[in-house]
Amino acid sequence: MPYRGRVPNAETLGMILQQGRLARGLSQRELAAELGLTQRWVSEMEAGKPGKLTERLFAMLDATGVRLIAELDPPNADDEHEPEEPGAGDD
Q1: How far apart are CA 84 and CA 91, in angstroms?
Q2: Which CATH class is domain 3-72?
Q3: Of 3, 13, 22, 27, which is most buried, counting CB atoms within 10 Å of its CB?
Q4: Per residue in 28-42, pLDDT tens?
């Protein structure tokens, strides 16, 4: 069963991303290489380091009353699982 929870700030988002990386058995360096990023960028994101994008994102979420929810698949989840599109199945 996946973990699902509210993401109220950049720090929480960073912790969730770190848990997802660890669940996949990847180091920061390996994830960075897979994504074409630097290890430092991955580290800063996981630490919840403030940046223009995250500050603006969470300010906009607050201002609009929108909640960001993250879902972390368990380590043995099927890697081919595609997330459902928002609104799919809502009839």
Answers
A1: 14
A2: mainly alpha
A3: 13
A4: 999 999 999 999 999
